[in-house]
Amino acid sequence: MLSEKLQRVMLYCRWVDLATYREVTRPHMKRHIPFPLNLFLPKKMHLDVMEKLRLYGISTKEQAYVIARDCYTALNAKLESVDTPYFFGDQPSALDVAVFGHIVDALGNSQLAPTVHQHAPLLITLAERIRDAYFGAPGEQPTSLSEEAVYSENQANYFTTTALDSAFMKKVSPPLQVAFLKPYRSLDWSRRELASEVNQKKREKEAEKRAAANEEQDKAFEKGPRNVIIGAIAALLLYAIAALPVAVQFGDDDDDDEYYEDDDDDEYEDEK
Q: How confident is the model over 5-31, as pLDDT tens digits?
């Protein structure tokens, strides 16, 4: 259940959800993949995960969150059925550790967090217990996961020391398959809405700038090239009119004909 269904849900949240992919996953991958692979490999991985999840019947976030809800309900019922603090006794097992790792990541996603709080309150208690036992500083007061994250890069990692940093293959570059192992906290919904509003305002400003530029171009065209074109057309028309042949006649043709006919009659009578 954890290694298949819930893992696919987290794959959807990281790679398919557009807000998380564009704002978290893709920038993170580009920083850790060498050039020029970082130009196209994140997009390819994004498309590959989308196709893989589509084959498993997960193509929308509603489908992903329904699967998560059912898994949380089943795990919560399993933990409720035992009288021990962990799934299989008084000490955490591999299942407890896997649940802890998933709950940590799920509570960092504001779309999954309400589902976890509603359907898996005992899993949150389990994660708090593991966090306080193994990830807390000496003398630190336990806190509720409802108030803050269990563990993320926003909270200090007490296992990270200078000695450990130098011991773990510091000078060896990780392969591409594990370049995404660094934990991160998904953007919450409020930050997504803020980013969406900022992007929308940027698009509106760009549209206004383009409209103003087009208006200025239209005005410039009205004052410049259009007047030149109109003047050229008018000059051509005037030249054509001036080149036309013009015949000027004085008097009336009918009156002239009658005049000549009268003269012919007078001459004929004089001869008689």
A: 888 888 888 888 888 888 888 888 888
C-alpha to C-alpha distance for 99 and 115, rounded to whole angstroms: 15
Of 266 and 123, the one with more pLDDT: 123
- For the chain, how big is the Rg over CA atoms in Å? 42
Contacts for 188-195: CB closer than 8 Å, 24+ residues apart: 188/108, 188/109, 188/110, 189/110, 189/111, 190/110, 192/19, 192/23, 192/110, 195/19, 195/23
Structure tokens belonging to residue 243: 């080149």
- CA–CA dist 15, 166 (Å, integer): 31
Residue tagged 């976030």 (tokens): 61
CA separation for the pair 109, 120 (Å, rounded): 15
What local confidence, expressed as pLDDT, does residue 265 receive?
54
Long-range CB pairs of 112-115 (<8 Å, 24+ gap) are: 112/9, 112/13, 112/65, 112/68, 115/65, 115/68, 115/69, 115/72
Read off the pLDDT of residues 175-215 as tens digits, 9 standing for 90 and up: 444 444 433 334 444 444 555 666 777 888 888 888 888 87
